[in-house]
Amino acid sequence: MVIVRNRVTGQLKEFISNEMKGKKVKVAIHKTLYVSDMKEIQNMLNILMKKLRELLRKNGKLDLNNAIELEVELVGPRLKMHEKLMVLKIWNMNSANNYVFKTKWNNFVKANEKDLKENTKIRSVRFSYTKSFALQLHI
Known about the structure:
Blueprint (H helix, E strand, L loop, with lengths): L6 H13 L3 E10 L2 H4 L5 E5 L9 H8 L4 E6 L10 E7 L4 E6 L2 H8 L6 E8 L4 E7 L2
Parallel strand pairs: 3-7
Antiparallel strand pairs: 1-6, 2-5, 3-4, 4-5, 6-7
């Protein structure tokens, strides 16, 4: 796999490492945000499970498979931690199982709507105290 390094990627990694003391920053998925992902009525971000790279540790996967919802932090495209925890869970559909960020997704969209674009990378970040994700604009 080739990882393209650019100014935005460097700033994000520096922010996560230096400011937030995060580690193990890796791309979980390169997702296109559709209009439906941004609609207020949705209030969730749907991510196809089969398209994700390693998103969670085994114990996190077991929790989600046992219908336990995980509270996670989300860093927005302005390199700022969203003030409300997001709920990550598995959503079982007839065609496939998906991960969804739910509950506070609308708040995140409203706070970042000028910066959210169609092509966004979601990075998985490990902090000592919690599981977190960062949305990075793909430029």
